[in-house]
Amino acid sequence: MKTKKIELDVDFIGGQSALTVAEEKALSDFFKQRKISSSKTLVKKRRISSKPRKVLA
Amino acid sequence: MLAICFGSDTTHFHRWKYFNFGLHTTWGLAQYGQKKVHPGGGCLLSGGYGPTSSGTIVNFCMNNFVSLYSFSGGRTQQQFPYSPKPRPLVAMQSDSTFPQETMQKSLCFSYFSNVKKNKEIGLDFIIDKLTNSIENVLTGDSFATDISILKSSDLKSLSKKNKWQFDWAEEFDQPERDVYKLTIVNNSTIIQGLISLEVKSDHVYMHLVESAPFNKGKTKVYSGVPGNLVAFACKLSFQRGHEGNVSFLSKTQLVEHYEKTLGAFHFGGRVMIIETKAALKLINKYFQNQ
């Protein structure tokens, strides 16, 4: 059985149709969530770094 | 922040603007691309009309924008919370008389309120040069390119008659979208590819990317056009404070291709996202000299 090669049209990306409302919402929720999680990790890091170091005599 | 600037060419004195964002009061002397940063206030105004300029350089920059980070002594928008969000308006051509090094790293935006109105005064937007970005398929030579905003005069050559697949006039007419063209340095009349972008509140959405008709298929003249334009979208996303995040729609059969080539991930349905890491890779690949 012969296999057919399908050429991928990679000379353009996207299209002229806009995002649907559901897609827009999903995207904004995703980026919101990412922002929240990244800011939480930043706060954690700051807390860890602000702890005073023990000075050994 | 009050900045008063004087040009080295006194005939252009009236082109400089006074502007006030409150909080800090300082002044800087800016002439022909020099910068002065006040130690306390962090005010920067730079750019100008060169003494021998033919008038094509218009470059006013303020340091409340990420793209000017290195240009402005390391101050970012976060440190200037009272500044409005920048918005590109007009792409300007660079001039050989202007110090290119200072121009290269900056997308420039201006917000100045006019003291005296002048025809040539406007809000300006300059896009950097890219290097080693597109390659001649036959010879393997790479060519430095420019990306600039599309002008209405360019639309004539972008018709379906000229074998462009999409209606770029329609893209151009959408007010929330910005269409950029990729050209080879010193050959700005021939468009190698186009990209339509929309800066959303949390990321950059890539509506459409298309290579020029002669850069398509097996007989393409130059390779690397779409990758170059996508890298530019990622760079713009960083500059707008969106951490390089770019989204776009993909055909289902191309999802895997974009995962491999762009490092994008399949968000679901037809939506794909390029996140920070992948964006950085693309930028390093196509903007390696910056």
Outline of this structure?
Chain A has 57 residues and is mostly helical. Chain A has one helix spanning 21-50; one strand spanning 12-14. The longest helix of chain A has 30 residues, at 21-50.
Mean pLDDT of chain A comes to 79
Number-wise, the strands of chain A total 1
The end-to-end span of chain A amounts to 80 Å
Q: How many helix segments of chain A? A: 1
* Strand-residue proportion of chain A: 5-15%
Shape of chain A: elongated
Rounded mean pLDDT score of chain B: 68
**Radius of gyration of chain A, in angstroms, nearest whole number:** 24 Å
Helix and strand sequence of chain B: EEHEEHEEEEHEHEEH
Within the largest sheet of chain B, what's the order of strands? 8-3-4-5-6-7-9-11-10
The run of helices and strands of chain A is EH
Low-confidence stretches of chain A: none
Number of strands of chain B: 11
Approximate shape of chain B: globular
Largest sheet of chain B: 9 strands, mixed
Largest sheet of chain A: none
How does the SSE layout of this entry go?
The complex is a heterodimer of chains A (57) and B (290).
Chain A: E1 12-14, H1 21-50
Chain B: E1 2-3, E2 19-20, H1 100-104, E3 129-136, E4 142-149, H2 168-173, E5 178-184, E6 187-199, E7 204-211, E8 222-223, H3 225-239, E9 246-249, H4 255-261, E10 265-268, E11 271-274, H5 276-286
Parallel strand pairs in B: 7-9
Antiparallel strand pairs in B: 1-2, 3-4, 3-8, 4-5, 5-6, 6-7, 9-11, 10-11
